[in-house]
Amino acid sequence: MSVSLSSFQSCFVVHIKPVRVTSGELRDMLSRNLGDAARWIETAAKAGMAPAQIVWGQMLLEGRGVSRDAAAAFGWFVKAANGGDIEAKNMVGRCYEQGWGIAPNARRATEYFADAAYAGHLWGQVNLAQMLMRSGKAADHQRCFELFKKVAEQGTGKARLKAMNSLARFLEEGWAGKTDPKQAAFWYLKAANLGDHWAQYNLATILLACGEQQEAERWLASAVAISDNGFRRRIAPLLLGRTELSVRQHGLNALAFCAESGAIEDLWAYGLALDNGVAGTSDTKAGMRFIRQAASLGHAQAKVHVRHRDGYCTLNRLSDALGTFSRKMSHLILLKATL
What we know:
Elements: H1 5-9, H2 23-31, H3 34-46, H4 50-62, H5 70-82, H6 86-98, H7 106-118, H8 122-134, H9 141-154, H10 157-173, H11 181-193, H12 197-209, H13 213-226, H14 229-240, H15 245-259, H16 264-276, H17 284-296, H18 300-338
């Protein structure tokens, strides 16, 4: 007896259960299959799914899996925001803040951040506080402090770390009351223990001011090691400007990490620091190796430095040779005189 496949197929009923996912969960799923992501997400975005509209906008903004189109990204964020999505409102605020796909507009950015913040969005609260700080109105400082404190105490992830650092800075500088280094250190320490390099650096500066150099240097070493080159370039001159030689060494280490990238300015900066002995004893041989590398890549100051250094070395060799010749001549003169 023959049985067709269709008779078996007719026995099965497939139930499809819809599942609600956030844009963050959607990004995680798609990161594992970026090749098909663009097609899936664009289709879902056009079907009106807010999480998909946000992720599609971010893909367009970053050029991830698709051609970069910041203006189109902004349009998708607006679509999702108009539907009430608070993450989308925060992203529209970011676009107005940074000028992504739209002309920068601080007032509009603040409005969108405020909408997201009042709805409980963590980054919306942090971004709103930062915008208010940038406005320069002292009357807003207390409000900023309260926003940062709320996220620092109740938030999660990177938003919480950002809030902890900002809250600590408020306490350190006294922007919303009296300065409170002890409480500032408390919040810096919480963020530092969670691996935030800015918190580790800021905590170290407080510890140095309190005379706790060994503990400060432990945090400086960690901050330099775990951070990115943008951060390292910012703190290197600050550390190299310190009076303590061992602290300057951390600045030199920051430049060393940067030089590993092979970037021309980093090669020059690290080579010059070694040559000048900014952290103690000069290491001209190693320094000139990096400076020559920078010069070979076209760095104008490095080229001049190499010419001067080579000229100086030539003069030294010539001086040594003349000295040797002079001594030999003196010896010959004396020899003739004795004969």
